[in-house]
Amino acid sequence: MAVASWPALGVVATLDNAIPLNATGFPSGGVTPNRLGPNINVTITGTNFSCNMHLTGSAISGDYTNSTGVLRVNPTGALTLHIDAVSGCLGVWQVGDTAGFRADFTVNPKQTISHES
Question: What is the pTM (predicted TM-score) of this model?
Answer without folding.
Answer: 0.74
